[in-house]
Design a protein that fits this description.
Blueprint: H1 2-17, E1 35-36, E2 44-47, E3 53-57, E4 63-67, E5 72-78, E6 96-104, E7 107-114, E8 122-129, E9 138-146, E10 158-162, E11 165-170, E12 177-182, E13 196-199, E14 208-216, E15 219-226, E16 238-244, E17 265-269, E18 274-285, E19 288-297, E20 303-313, E21 319-321
Parallel strand pairs: 1-5
Antiparallel strand pairs: 2-3, 3-4, 4-5, 6-7, 7-8, 8-9, 10-11, 11-12, 12-13, 14-15, 15-16, 16-17, 18-19, 19-20, 20-21
Length: 322
């Protein structure tokens, strides 16, 4: 009995030392520590051929951050010195959203969206640069557009190459996530390109957006942001994922539920001070996949900040963050 009582006392003492956060909180890792200019929204990150990293984001004329080590980030102004004139067709301030950076054929390619809140009168633009650095981009105009007569919204672009072709996933609310094929030479939508449907939700307002697709082994993995962003500590953004053996789908989660029916495995959601995790992208760094996203810092008045976590891949092929 004494041994049992002693064991109970020890167990109680150990429990008292454990964190008091809810079990849901400890199921997700915190973002890896970063310093310097941490404020960011909808980040896209790449390791430059010249060394170091650049991150572009919503805010400014596509806000730019630079880092030598992926830990300390410096404000580097904007991708563009001034908004291209055509941006004003889509909003009064020439304000671009949710960029995506990639590298192919000896150039960096930057895609971005121009729109206004609550409308699908939207456009995705494209620019190129030899270095990928802010201030070096040449804009090439519209890659794809949507109008109020369309059932999709041309924002949140993300590029992937598959089977010798170039594809762009995109979408926000309306009917969810879509995909089109691009001309490899111009980087713009092929004429009369089929608009494929990848993911949506059965309930209005169909809150899924910000797609990003990664190839791992024989599957394509579609990451997307679900629920509401842009509300500081009241944001409910979370990242879900599904996969397919074909880049155009159909995508399903680990239970087999189609993403076109609201499926999607929960990869990362808010916990503790890290609220509304989303606006994600994935980049390759030293042989590993890294998830970039923003969160709203509950200990800093809901300021959006940069989150980075390495992606690991389980034996069954599904990704996890750590």
């Amino acid at each position: 009995m004494k041994r049992l009582r002693l064991a109970a006392v020890v167990a109680a003492a150990l429990l008292a030392l454990l964190p008091t956060t809810a079990s849901a909180d400890v199921a997700y890792p915190d973002p890896q520590p970063v310093t310097g200019q941490q404020i960011i929204h909808d980040p896209t990150v790449i390791r430059l051929k010249s060394g170091g990293y650049v991150a572009y984001s919503t805010g400014g004329i596509i806000g730019a951050r630079l880092s030598k080590d992926r830990k300390h980030w410096d404000d580097a102004g904007n991708a563009f010195a001034a908004p291209p004139s055509w941006w004003y067709e889509y909003n009064d301030t020439g304000d671009p959203w949710a960029p995506d950076i990639s590298y192919r054929d000896g150039r960096y390619w930057l895609y971005y969206a121009v729109s206004s809140w609550g409308t699908n009168h939207s456009a995705i633009g494209v620019a190129t640069s030899r270095t990928g650095l802010p201030g070096t981009w040449t804009d090439h105009g519209k890659a794809f557009t949507s109008e109020t007569t369309d059932s999709w919204n041309a924002i949140d672009p993300a590029l992937i190459r598959a089977d010798g072709k170039l594809w762009m996933s995109f979408g926000s609310y309306w009917t969810g996530i879509r995909m089109i094929e691009l001309d490899r030479r111009t980087g713009k939508a092929l004429p009369a390109s089929t608009v494929h449907h990848l993911a949506t939700r059965p309930d209005a307002p169909y809150a899924v957006e910000g797609p990003y697709i990664v190839k791992h082994r024989r599957h394509y993995y579609l990451f997307a942001s679900y629920d509401a962003c842009c509300a500081g500590v009241n944001s409910t953004y979370k990242i879900r994922v599904g996969r397919s053996t074909q880049v155009t789908g159909p995508y399903v989660d680990s239970t087999g539920k189609p993403l076109l029916e609201g499926g999607g495995d929960l990869l990362l959601e808010g916990h503790g001070r890290y609220v509304g995790t989303g606006g994600e992208s994935v980049f390759r760094d030293r042989g590993r996949d890294v998830l970039a996203y923003h969160y709203y810092d509950a200990e800093d008045n809901g300021t959006p900040k940069l989150g980075l976590n390495t992606l690991s891949w389980a034996k069954n092929g599904w990704p996890k963050v750590f």
